Amino acid sequence: MRAALRRLPALAGEPIRILRQPGLREGSRAVHAGSFLRDRRIEFNCSALEFGRVFVHEVFHFVWLRLGNGRRRSYEDLLRLELAARARGELGWSAEWRKRALRSVDWETRSRRWRLYCCESFCDSAAWLYSGVRRHAEFTLAGRFRRRRRDWLEAASARGPFSL
User: Fold this and answer.
1) What are residue 19's DSSP bridge partners?
2) pTM more than 0.90
3) How would DSSP label each residue in 63-108?
């Protein structure tokens, strides 16, 4: 965990409890982790090999919650540009399957499906950038779109610490 923490941008906020939770599920599906934002805890059920990537993803759920409407909308605009360019792939399965389920009405109306996709895409992008994992089967987004996401995250973090 210390290696993952060193790679993160500046963060500010109250502590988050980290717990191991074997057999963690969301409905009928086994999951690697779950964030409980109100309780300020993250429960993990993943291998040591996946921990860094999953850890960063889950921490960024807390960041997304406190990112503010302006920065969230800015990230949504980035995703809309990708969709207009017919970008395929994502930087993690949690965003990938949500992206595949989107219809144009979702991003036009900012439906719940769209907003959930945006959150997962943000968290997966942060995990790709800050976890130290350079290659992964779930990193399927083309390089030009990865660069734009990296630029967006770096610009957002340059404005000061991300709030947890």
Assistant:
1) 43
2) yes
3) HHHHS-HHHHHHHHHHHHHHHHTT----SSHHHHHHHHH--HHHHH
